[in-house]
Amino acid sequence: MAKSILRRFTKRFLIFVNILAAVFFLAGSYGYLLNPAYFWPVGLLTLTAFYFMLLLLGFVFFWLVIKPRLAFISVVALLLAYKPVSNIIAMRLPGPFAQAKPQNAIRVITWNVAQFNVMEDKKTGGKKRYG
To answer: How many CB atoms lie within 10 A of CB 62?
Structure first.
């Protein structure tokens, strides 16, 4: 009898945590629709959306082993946030780079070299020395 009470409590607790993680994940994924100036926790949920996604993926594998029907909670949440997930995990396949440049085009190459001499700036107090 005690085993079934513990088992029911654990099952209900895990379902509750799964639903809560799904709601937080969806709120974080679609957090760009709300202005964080009015409701700041949405910004926090947006930062943690990746970790909630990992938790939901863990729940998918867990429920597939224990009770496959309950895996739909996490799968539905992940499918509802398909587009935001593609922004969270930005996997862009590299396109081909044409070595030959068209005649009517120019190429601009930039380097971010502003902070290469941070240690030198600390020695001189941030004053630039020219020459």
So the answer is: 15
